[in-house]
Amino acid sequence: MKNEEKDLLPRTKDFARRKIRLCVALPKETLAQVLGQQVLRSGTSIGANYREANRARSKAEFISKVGDCLKEADETIYWLELIDEEKILPQPRLSPLLQEANELVAILVTISKRARGD
């Protein structure tokens, strides 16, 4: 495993912890809580799936798990965009989270392509 791929383990865990803190900060209104649960689920799944990918028994399993990470990262962006568009939290609070999610997507795409030999 390359160093940048190892560095992704703590980065995805930190991302998950940031999603936990985001959910705690959300208003107690139903819409905010429902969207928050979606962000929490998808945002914490990225790191869990990446951890599994690094324990894959085959290249195919690794590629599949990285694909799961990518799917969850993209889904997280979707939920964060909804929270932003519905003005549930101020944009300055969400902007760094969206930036990190987009960076994770870019990294995961690169890892996936490299693993597939593209």
Describe the structure in your own words:
The chain is mainly alpha-helical and 118 residues long. It contains 4 helices and no strands. It has one domain: Up-down Bundle (de novo design (two linked rop proteins)). Helix content is 85%, strand content 0%. The two termini are 17 Å apart.
Count helical runs.
4
**Given the C-alpha coordinates, what overall shape results?**
elongated
- Which structural class best describes the helix and strand composition? mainly alpha
How helix-rich are the residues, as a percent range?
over 70%
The named CATH superfamily:
23S rRNA-intervening sequence
Radius of gyration: 15 Å
Order of helices and strands: HHHH
**Poorly predicted ranges:** none
CATH topology: de novo design (two linked rop proteins)
Question: Helices and strands in order, then pairings?
Answer:
Blueprint: H1 3-25, H2 30-53, H3 59-85, H4 91-116
Task: Provide a short characterization of the protein structure.
With 118 residues, the chain is mainly alpha-helical. Helices cover 85% and strands 0% of the residues.
Keywords:
de novo design (two linked rop proteins); mainly alpha; 118 residues
